[in-house]
Amino acid sequence: MKLSAETTLKGIAIAMGAIAALMVAVEFQTVLETQHAERPAAVVSDDTLRATLQLCRTLTPEELETDTTCQAAWEENRRRFFGLTPDDLETE
Predict the structure, then answer these.
(1) Same domain for 31 and 66?
(2) CB 56 within 8 A of CB 67
(3) Which residue has the higher pLDDT, 84 or 56?
């Protein structure tokens, strides 16, 4: 199979178009990631548990072991998530 000059040029043009499209996609992704990183995390102000958990996420594991406020907040979060009552927690 012999390739003509016209076929070769079409192949090169298609490859260059694909490379250009890939470069545009990468650039858009970079811009979107930059914009996403600049936005602060949304914290619902009327939910104190959520605000407390947001602060507790910044603690190291060593700090978390001694922080009773964060431990209680995580326990309450688990209780809410699993739909447990305080009586259910005592039986476990």
Answers:
(1) no
(2) yes
(3) 56
The answer to whether the beta carbons of residues 70 and 56 sit under 8 Å apart is: yes
How many domains does the chain divide into? 2
Same domain for 87 and 59: yes
The tokens describing 76, both together, are 């309450």
pLDDT digits (tens, 9 = 90+) for 3-52: 899 999 999 999 999 999 999 999 999 988 887 776 666 554 567 898 89
Q: Are 53 and 73 in contact (CB under 8 A)?
A: yes
Mapped onto helix, strand or coil, the DSSP state of residue 44 is coil
Q: What is the pTM of this model?
A: 0.45
User: What tens digit of pLDDT does each residue of 48-75 get?
Assistant: 898 899 999 998 989 888 999 999 999 9
Q: How far is CA 84 from CA 50, 74, 78, 92, in A?
A: 18, 14, 8, 11
Residues 29 and 58 in one domain: no
Amino acid residing at 6: E
Q: Whole domain around residue 5: which residue ranges?
A: 1-39
